[in-house]
Specification:
2 copies of one chain form a homodimer. By secondary structure, the first copy, chain A, is an alpha+beta fold. Chain A is about 20% helix and about 30% strand.
Chain lengths: ~210, ~210
């Protein structure tokens, strides 16, 4: 048996949706609450049971229909404050990154392992797939808010490394509201390592000599 | 950047299905191949986009409709040989455990972390959710094959600890055949730990004294 994971919780500062019907914009805007179905956040551009493989899943041919495990994007206010500091700007808004949820109070959010669950008070439960690796698009959104500063877009990728939050999918439908308390449950810790390879005879002899 | 995971592969000794229409039996039987959809293995009793929460998910009220991430059960022939040895019987068949896939050649299969992908030659791709913890039912199936030996059912739970394989779900549909080569891709390694808590002044003084 493994030791129980520490109990973690936080609260939800913001719920955000991207509702551009033409899917040309990825930035999100704040809403007071969202209905959560097995497809994702109702009305958000990333909702769906499946998605088309893209640059995030280079092990599939581009355009392959695969299960959508990137329904929802989650960021940490504390991490975004660190990103802003590293970029030399006052703040980085969750909406500029196209995030759906902005949490406060969960330490090292982006480091939570795959399989971590987020429980919300009104039944909705999300499972985290993994880190959302920074790309240049949010950097461009940030740049658009600071036309006087040069090179912010490319600086974002470095500044946001391991601080850009997580993506995940809906395990249980429900309702999520801004201000909700959020309970975080880590999966059992696992470490995979290959069994030690047998040392070849020649190498053993060298070790002895 | 993290170091790339070692490349792992194995092959598929058996494909098995549980097709009891009344869902009274959980043991599986060998088939030459299986069609794989987003619901799981076509015709298997565990197929479905959703499932009802049970003893495996005690954080949900029993019977809650949740996403089905236990569509498929995967075991390792090498691990089952170890289980049989620990139980003092000649072999433990994958079918007795209700497994759907029996792999050969993937070391320490049950320890593969959540998010591990199994790629098959004809497009099907599975993602592992995590360990399938042993319960007493497969032990009873084993006992039925050895009516002369007493107490096998309860010994199974101990003998199969961390050797009972994994459960997972379909990321990409396709076809899986007995004898297929299987490519295994580990997710990026992650270790989550809480930041060190600031030491209270009183405790610091004790440490100094």
């Amino acid at each position: 048996m493994t030791a129980p994971a520490p109990s973690l919780s936080g609260h939800l500062a913001n719920v955000l949706l991207c509702t551009d019907p033409e899917k040309k914009r990825f930035v999100t805007r704040e809403v007071p609450e969202v209905q959560v179905s097995f497809e994702g956040f109702v009305g958000d551009r990333h909702a769906g049971l499946t998605r088309l493989a893209d640059v995030r899943t280079p092990w599939f041919p581009r355009g392959t229909v695969v299960r959508n495990t990137r329904q929802v994007s989650v960021v940490s206010r504390e991490e975004l404050t660190e990103v802003a500091h590293a970029m030399g700007i006052p703040h980085v808004m969750a909406s500029w990154l196209g995030a759906n949820l902005e949490l406060v109070g969960v330490p090292r959010l982006t480091h939570l392992p795959p399989g971590t669950r987020l429980f919300f008070p009104e039944e909705a439960t999300l499972v985290m797939e993994g880190e959302n690796q920074p790309c240049i698009h949010p950097g461009r959104a940030i740049e658009a808010h600071h036309p006087d500063l040069k090179g912010l877009a490319s600086r974002f990728v470095k500044a946001a490394w391991q601080k850009r939050g997580l993506v995940g999918w809906v395990e249980r439908p429900g309702l999520i509201r801004a201000g909700d308390e959020v309970r975080v449950m880590l999966p059992p810790p696992v470490t995979y390592s290959l069994p030690a390879a047998p040392v070849p005879v020649a190498a053993r002899q060298e070790q002895v000599a």
